[in-house]
């Protein structure tokens, strides 16, 4: 249960990874080093988290200190929305590998299915004078994917995947690619269990990684003044009475129950923490088991679409992109 096997390469992906969104470079460097010392072997980052260089420093130091080798680690990063086009894949991947100080990444994901035009100087999205993001309407997943396949052949990427794609978008890549998507990273927690999407992935031999597995308690502060966001969107999963009750009976914490619940179903989890205590807590998942009765109780917490936190509407105008993956959300709002 500590690993899942990826299709096509048979690489082993640790079911526990360290999330690093909202972790500043100053903090994440020592966090990653500590996490590796604690036994974490899987780190999740992205171009957009602005911390790849610090993570690279920590990993290099850990290896130079003789504590392990690059082969012991599973490093994931993501092609950003501003680079979501065939002609930019190599440019971003090269830059990311340089920042991470690595020859290859274990997993490269297209971060989101939509694309924005890129400010060449800052490598951030161009925002129009009305506050809307400058959509790249030519986003073409298949041609982007084909370049990723070439990068895999060159040895720069070991495994290929997607993030925040819907079923139809994934299916199109499956139909038109040589290397099939091996991993899908999506929002997934007890309030938003994504059962249909998980069944689809299982049918296609795609491993699912759960982001925001604790319900992303820290996101509330991050989104506080963002366009289109209400603090009501953020669930208090860790405070849920049933999660707490199950935690007590196992002498575990609510976070451990929420993570174990997913790992026990072969879902990969990538909780983020920069606290020594919580890093340790989140890694202690493999010495107990939830009963079928408890699993059933947790299954019932699913709120379906109402449990979704990350709809990306904070990027003003994103719903007008032809590849915005959750069109049904805006259509439902229009008919209210
Ligand atoms: N692909 C995507 O679009 C996407 C989107 C969002 C996230 N992600 C990835 O998924 C990772 C996880 O998602 P997330 O960071 O949004 O949410 P999360 O892991 O569900 O929650 C992280 C938050 O919970 C706190 N926390 C961690 N362990 C805890 C514990 N044991 N008890 C109580 N609080 C705890 C952390 O604070 P402390 O640091 O203070 O402990 C942090 O504020 C990200 O870091 C990122 O790598 C990907």
Automatic annotation (TrEMBL):
Q: Name one GO molecular function term.
A: oxidoreductase activity
Lineage, top-rank taxon, reads: Eukaryota
Among Gene3D superfamilies, the record links this protein to: NADP-dependent oxidoreductase domain (3.20.20.100)
The record's listing under PROSITE patterns reads: ALDOKETO_REDUCTASE_1, ALDOKETO_REDUCTASE_2, ALDOKETO_REDUCTASE_3
Q: In the UniProt record, does the keyword NADP occur?
A: yes
Keyword NADP present in the record's keywords: the answer is yes
Alphabetically ordered keywords of this record: NADP, Oxidoreductase
Site keyed Lowers pKa of active site Tyr: positions: 78
Q: Where does substrate bind?
A: 111
Q: Entry's Pfam families?
A: Aldo_ket_red (PF00248)
Active site location: 49 (proton donor)
Q: Where is the NADP-dependent oxidoreductase domain?
A: 16-302
Quote the InterPro entries the UniProt record gives: AKR (IPR020471), Aldo/ket_reductase_CS (IPR018170), NAD(P)_OxRdtase_dom_sf (IPR036812), NADP_OxRdtase_dom (IPR023210)
Query: What family is this?
Result: Belongs to the aldo/keto reductase family.
| Name of the protein described by the UniProt record | Jg13130 protein
- The gene coding this protein: jg13130
């Amino acid at each position: 249960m500590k690993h899942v096997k990826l299709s096509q390469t048979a690489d082993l992906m640790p079911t526990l990874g360290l999330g690093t969104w909202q972790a500043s470079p100053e903090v994440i460097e020592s966090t990653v080093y500590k996490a590796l010392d604690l036994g974490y072997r899987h780190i999740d980052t992205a171009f957009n988290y602005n911390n790849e260089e610090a993570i690279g420093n920590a990993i290099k130091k850990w290896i130079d200190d003789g504590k392990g080798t690059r082969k012991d680690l599973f490093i994931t990063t993501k092609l950003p929305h501003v680079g979501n086009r065939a002609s930019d894949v190599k440019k971003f991947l090269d830059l990311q590998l340089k920042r991470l100080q690595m020859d290859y990444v274990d997993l490269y994901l297209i971060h989101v299915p939509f694309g924005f035009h890129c400010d060449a100087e800052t490598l951030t999205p161009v925002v129009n004078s009305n506050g809307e993001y400058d959509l790249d309407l030519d986003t073409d997943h298949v041609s982007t994917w084909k370049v990723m396949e070439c990068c895999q052949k060159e040895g720069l990427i070991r495994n290929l995947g997607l993030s925040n794609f819907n079923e139809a978008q994934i299916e199109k890549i499956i139909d038109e690619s040589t290397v099939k998507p091996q991993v899908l990273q999506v929002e997934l927690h007890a309030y938003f269990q994504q059962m249909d999407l998980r069944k689809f992935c299982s049918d296609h031999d795609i491993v699912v990684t759960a982001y925001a597995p604790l319900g992303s308690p820290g996101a509330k502060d991050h989104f506080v003044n963002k366009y289109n966001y209400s603090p009501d969107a953020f669930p208090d999963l860790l405070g849920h009475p049933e999660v707490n009750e199950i935690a007590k009976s196992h002498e575990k914490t609510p976070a451990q129950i929420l993570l174990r619940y997913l790992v026990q179903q072969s879902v990969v989890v990538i909780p983020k923490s920069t606290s020594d205590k919580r890093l340790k807590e989140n890694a202690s998942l493999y010495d107990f088991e939830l009963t079928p009765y408890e699993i059933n109780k947790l299954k019932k917490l699913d709120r379906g679409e109402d449990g979704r936190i990350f709809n990306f509407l904070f990027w003003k105008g994103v719903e007008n992109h032809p590849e915005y993956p959750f069109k049904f959300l805006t259509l439902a709002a229009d008919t209210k």
